[in-house]
Amino acid sequence: MLSAYFTLITILSCLALIAHRKHQVSHKEVVSKGVADTLPLLFRIPAAILAGSFLAELIPKAYVVALLGDSSGLQGILLASILGGFLPGGPMIAFPLLLALFKAGMGIPQMIALLTAWLLLAFHRIIAFELPMLGSRFVRRRLLACLPLPLLAGIAALAADNLF
Question: CA-to-CA distance for 70 and 66, rounded, in angstroms?
């Protein structure tokens, strides 16, 4: 986590130096836009984390462990891949839910499969955006290319889990 922070600070510093050399760039305007974009997140992130923590207490742990726990193996990875494709919303909804499932006993390979499916498949985005804008030919090709990836990611995580 600390290395990611230092990487972002380094990138920010480099971009600020490059922007400083251009006379049409106003640092005050850039900072004010950055603050305006950041302020809504300062309220959403803690609320989302709290919601995820409360949700973790409400989810029946026995069901999560039985269906998506480490012992569920390939069936759990397949179920997580399917659930991830149908998981609605953006990161402010998905990540607190993932945190709640993880706290309830979801296995790491299953979590990787669910997260990968949420990122790649997201059927709600396909219906709302991709299909109307890009057409069915594109959607079919993209789905054929991406459909096995959550399952493969979960299997690879399961294999890595067995190695370490």
Answer: 9
The whole-angstrom separation of Cα 35 and Cα 51 is 25
- Cα separation values, 146 from 5, 73, 109, 150, Å: 31, 21, 18, 8
Cα gap 61→47, rounded to integer Å: 23
Tens of pLDDT, residues 26-63: 778 888 888 888 888 788 778 877 777 777 777 788 88
Distance, in Å, from the CA atom of 82 to the CA atom of 108, rounded to the nearest integer, reads 16
Residue with tokens 């804008």: 133
Burial of 71 (0-12, 13-18, 19+ CB in 10 A): exposed
Minimal CA–CA distance to 156: which of 61, 93, 81, 66?
Answer: 81
Place of tokens 């026995």: 62
* Tokens 């923590």 sit on residue: 53
Q: How many CB atoms lie within 10 A of CB 28?
A: 7
- Kindly report the pTM of this predicted structure: 0.73
Phi, psi of 57 (to 5 degrees): -75, -25
Cβ–Cβ under 8 Å, residues 83 and 114: yes
- Cβ contacts of 69 within 8 Å, gap of 6 or more: 76, 105, 106, 107, 110
